[in-house]
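hey team, just a heads up i'm posting the complex here instead of the shared drive bc the drive is being weird again. everything in one block, sequence lines first with there labels, then the predicted structure for the whole assembly after. its two chains so it's a bit long, scroll down
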Amino acid sequence: MAGTDATVRYQVLADDLAGRIARGQLKPGDRLPSVRELCRIHTASPATVTHALHLLEDHSLIEARPRSGFFVRRKPRLIAPPEQCATPGLPQTVELAEHHRLLMEFRRGIDRDWLGRARIDPALYPSVALQRHMTQLARREPNLLAQDVSANGDRALCEQLARRSVLLGCDWSPDEILVTHGETQAIAIALHVTTKPGDVIAIQAPSHMSQLNVLEVEGRQVVEIPSHPCDGLSVDALEIALERGNIAACVLSANFPNPTCSLMSDEAKQRTVTILAAHKVPLIEDDTGGDLYFGERRPPPFKAFDDTGNVLYCSDLSTILGTGLSLGYVVSGRYRIAFEHVQTSICDPVPLLFQRMAAAFMEGGQFEPYLRRLRHTLADNVAAYRDLIAEHFPVGTRVADTPGGYLLWAELPRQIDTAELQRQALPHGIHFAPGRFFCHQRGFDNCLRLNAGHLLTPAIEASIAKLGELAHELA
Amino acid sequence: MAGTDATVRYQVLADDLAGRIARGQLKPGDRLPSVRELCRIHTASPATVTHALHLLEDHSLIEARPRSGFFVRRKPRLIAPPEQCATPGLPQTVELAEHHRLLMEFRRGIDRDWLGRARIDPALYPSVALQRHMTQLARREPNLLAQDVSANGDRALCEQLARRSVLLGCDWSPDEILVTHGETQAIAIALHVTTKPGDVIAIQAPSHMSQLNVLEVEGRQVVEIPSHPCDGLSVDALEIALERGNIAACVLSANFPNPTCSLMSDEAKQRTVTILAAHKVPLIEDDTGGDLYFGERRPPPFKAFDDTGNVLYCSDLSTILGTGLSLGYVVSGRYRIAFEHVQTSICDPVPLLFQRMAAAFMEGGQFEPYLRRLRHTLADNVAAYRDLIAEHFPVGTRVADTPGGYLLWAELPRQIDTAELQRQALPHGIHFAPGRFFCHQRGFDNCLRLNAGHLLTPAIEASIAKLGELAHELA
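-- predicted structure starts here --
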């Protein structure tokens, strides 16, 4: 049968390529010949070649990189959850004096901080298009600078965000959305409306230092819930912490959280939302990374599984449109009225001009294509950074096969203290974030976070190579 | 002697004009003949006429209105401090449920709210010039939208604010200044760094509802210190409250505070700063109105008398450049490091583009001339609103001779409840702010605040006239 024939043909081709990979004729990171070349070499039809490539992709032997072709995949380097965080910690008052002392020490003389701060390359943002919208708006309505909005968010922007919520598996009305001065403010106000000073908040470990900071200044205690660098939050550990009682709220992130860029399964998200609702513990969700997925599908946030209004969804546009915008938003479920009251009481409204500018950009049909390009670029960039770490860092270094975002979390051999590594790297003008910054208790001392948001340049390549060299010396 | 002769001549002319005013030939609000006409009528030199006019001005019989000439002054209608606030109140937890219920009731169906919200007419703001600076900046540096500032405030803006501080009787270095998302945030963070929930804060009565709001959501208690609608805070009453003990901080305003636009004497400011420093009670100063003086001289803030770093000076550029900017700043004395830490922990940075835009406008030499024009316009406008109140409101209504700002505080005859007046005015689409909004304890029930920031139009005139008519019916 022709069908069987074709099946055999692409299987044979796939086996052939797999054999070359296994024998090292094609090495991890190597680019495969193009479809056209493969057709010629193997005298096969484009359909057969494409089929064979998809089969290899399904078996994780190769990977497609947008506009670059197919590459031999490096072996996934999954890392186990760090041992020191196997069970939830005990409630602790947040005291970051030591973190800040280290941060001050490490920030001295920062010049070009490519690898340290978690930042997307400004060159990747649609600044020129945004600027054009802004100029047009300001010319048409100069009063945008002269008046504020009485409600909490410009209608046009809230409508765009609501329209887009179906992509997230949600279906918000514009009235549910409140615009904030960035995501940090959204989280801080969400904490304010759900808890009070002294209350215990469950967070992931590792988690972003800015989350630890807000908990410190707001006088909350924390319980650190272990979180796998690939699969995210341990829901079992969360359940243990909830059974112990006394948790007033959670601040959690399901999609590509800082610093690990892990991704929870839909089942784990669903279970988290269900048990928190059952325990009547509000869930403050940080989903700033959610749109930066490298896979086929926008991963749903916790909020998509929430039918009790127990989830306060916090995100922003600054991460994806430009750090200089300070535009965040929140869908605060049953806390909506309280949230709005606190927000208007402690801060002036978010500039109308920036809100309208973002709305105009989202409305114009450029937004999703732009995001697609951004995701592809970041995926390529992150893969290239990962390859460099694999090439230069000591044997035993493990880096997850990041499914989204622009950060890399690396676990170095246990004897390497990354704070010491940072000290050694300072004279070379190299900054990164040592693992201990992401945990309140002492932990992750042999881990580090590298920002992979800047387009790779020879200077950055040299910095990563130097860092690997220094790590070798410490190993 | 020629000198004596001239003295006699202008004195005679001044007496003549004063006599006409006294006999009612020139009525309050009437425009005097121009200097040229007076020269002709009285066959006097311009110098003599000018001398005579200044003499009458010194005696408060006439007033100059920029670009309009001299007008017979209405008799100053000074108001006594309301009796219910003669001594400081006792510490109370702030509970604004009743205020908010009323506010919701009164805001229903707001369409054009000229008299209610405290706002300067958007037409008076330099939006076109700002927009030009913004467009130029964004074109030259599109990255301004894509990157944030790591420190708390753009250097260029802080330098402009520092340079300008000499006008305030201060001499700040750019490093002392932190830029915030508006003045409300500055006050909220200042409260955060100086006090904790449950602490007692001394505020003026009446004081701005936004101050009461932030104290409510931050869980602070208040002691209300009586404040004269003309001379401002009663320092004696403040001293009594301090002697009682337990005051953790003060939020006070010396120059044209909302709602009364009173002005404290320099001596009273000095004394306030001194006794607070002696009691080690930090003073959070709100000086948003300070630049809107109608007199010759920028009145100094409390901060000008502070030599211990005990005053946290909060102000903004939004009030004078455009409400849509949400640009505030703080000089936080010995709390600077704590302030910066809290600010960066709870909120994303202030958009760099807006900071640079404001800096460019201030740098360009247009700023002070613009402010002069704004002050003159507001002075004329406020005077015209005051005349309309005097004309239409019941006998016994008292309005202060506001020395700055854009708000009018009126005390109506005691039997008139201004909340009821607001209810009656709603069907006519008229909104104002009833006195009880400005006090935590029940108070100022016969007072109201009118926004006089919008350029007077026939529609606004008609609204004030209607309000007077409704007040007559209630009287």
